[in-house]
Specification:
The protein has 206 residues and is α+β, with helices and mostly antiparallel strands. The chain contains 6 helices and 8 strands. It has a single domain (7-203), classed as Chemotaxis protein chec (3-Layer(aba) Sandwich), CATH 3.40.1550. It has helices at residues 7-29, 48-58, 85-96, 105-131, 148-151, 187-203; strands at residues 36-39, 43-46, 64-73, 77-84, 136-138, 142-146, 161-172, 175-186. Strands 1, 2, 3, 4, 5, 6, 7 and 8 form an 8-stranded antiparallel β-sheet that branches. The longest helix is centred in the middle third of the chain and has 27 residues, at 105-131. The radius of gyration is 17 Å and the shape is globular.
Length: 206
């Protein structure tokens, strides 16, 4: 059973993620001549079954490029930045100047996407930890190319895991590159996060 989530909780989570994404966009803008806009339009809290159903609606069974960052501290979990393969190639091409059909694109893809994932995920988790005044430790980012189930380790996940799902839209000039940011919290850790948000809401002026 997911801890009761109110609209205020979702608003607070979305605001925290938006702050982090804004910082990440500023850093990515320094990597490329074109202006990069990152938006997080929707943040949802889901069970395993709900997440699987949502991902099946959005994606087919193809391969995806992903960057995972594990975090521990006041609350713990895994953050995954997941790109459909075509979007990953487009983003790497824009950031590196390599043509999409260039044989050299694959050789720079892992390093480039790992850096992007590190920037975006650290921006989001840094925002959460700083605004809520909670300490987090981060592992080294891991790059993967696999099915969405294997990337998110859904086969090894129990019903006690809470998923915080946010869709990331990358707008680069006239081209959109789509990706998914999936933050995964164990039930106890997610409860801690919600308690901290409640404390902040109580301290905030009405």
């Amino acid at each position: 059973m997911i801890q009761k989530i109110t609209p205020s909780h979702l608003d607070a989570l979305q605001e925290l993620i938006n702050i982090g994404v804004g910082r990440a966009a500023s850093m990515l803008n320094q990597m490329v001549d074109a202006r990069i806009i990152l938006e997080i339009p929707v943040v949802s809290v889901m069970t395993l079954v709900q997440l699987q159903s949502e991902l099946e609606k959005r994606f087919d069974s193809g391969s995806f490029a992903a960057v995972r960052l594990n975090f521990t501290g006041s609350f713990s979990g895994k953050a995954n930045l997941v790109f459909p393969t075509e979007s990953a190639a487009t983003l790497v091409s824009l950031l590196t100047g390599e043509e999409i059909d260039s044989p050299d694109l694959d050789s720079v893809k892992i390093g480039t996407l790992s850096e992007v994932g590190n920037i975006v995920i650290n921006g989001i988790m840094g925002s959460i930890s700083n605004v809520l005044n909670q300490h987090l430790n981060y592992a080294i980012p891991i790059y993967m190319e696999d099915s969405i189930n294997h990337i998110l380790s859904l086969d090894n996940t129990t019903e006690q895991t809470v998923f915080l799902l946010a869709q990331a839209r990358f707008a680069i000039e006239t081209l959109e590159v789509m990706g998914e940011i999936v933050l995964i919290f164990e039930m106890d850790s997610f409860g801690t996060l919600i308690k901290v948000i409640d404390q902040q809401l109580e301290l905030s002026p009405s």
